[in-house]
Design a protein that fits this description.
By secondary structure, this protein is mainly β. Helix content is 0%, strand content 53%. The strands form four sheets. Strands 9, 11, 13, 14, 16, 17 and 18 form a seven-stranded mixed β-sheet that branches. A hairpin with a 3-residue loop joins β16 and β17. The two termini are 33 Å apart.
């Protein structure tokens, strides 16, 4: 069958002007190459290292904002396309949130885990990120400022973070919280 490609930001989240992040593309094949598209235009050819290719954005500007996707090519033929990854560059105006996890960052499989993202702002919503995922796992609000994992399994382990925003006349963003590594034994 056709290979599947995953695309994600590492670290995830909205980035500030002057900030940096890396677009990662992963494919189950290790020959061929990736072409990175931005807003539907061919943007960069990426070298495959093992089964992944990376494109670094440093000193980000508004020009880096856009919809990115990876196309996997072998001998000039497109074998697969990733989903579209939205990259946003925005000024941070809100205080940095704090991500916490209960009962702790090391848990046994099957445990009940709660992530909470706290920010010193009365009406902010927050996104919970897991590194390696194309989109935020969940949107947390003042009404529900936590995210439950009721039966944790090995697939839930990884590096989590959160980022908050307010919706007024325009979106205002916070920096991304410190990361938290969840270990599932």
């Amino acid at each position: 069958g056709a290979p599947t490609i995953s695309i994600f930001l590492k670290p995830p989240g909205v980035i500030p002007p002057g900030g940096s992040t890396t677009i990662c593309c992963i494919c189950q094949h290790d020959n061929g190459n990736f072409v990175l598209y931005r807003n539907g235009q061919r943007f960069r050819t990426l070298e495959l290292r093992g089964s992944r290719a990376e494109f670094s954005i440093s000193n980000a500007t508004q020009e880096d904002t856009g919809a990115y996707s990876c196309h996997y090519l072998d001998g000039g033929t497109v074998l697969a396309r990733s989903e579209t990854l939205e990259v946003m560059v925005r000024e941070f105006r809100l205080p940095k949130p704090v991500l916490s996890v209960l009962p702790g960052h090391e848990v046994a499989a099957g445990a009940y885990v709660i992530f909470r993202c706290t920010i010193a702002h009365s009406s902010a919503g927050c996104f919970l990120y897991l590194e390696g995922q194309i989109k935020a796992l969940d949107l947390l609000s003042k009404e529900q400022d936590y995210f439950n994992l009721s039966h944790v399994h090995k697939g839930n382990r990884g590096r989590y973070s959160c980022q908050c925003f307010t919706k007024g006349t325009s979106f205002e963003w916070s920096a991304v919280s410190k990361t938290l590594d969840l270990v599932v034994r």
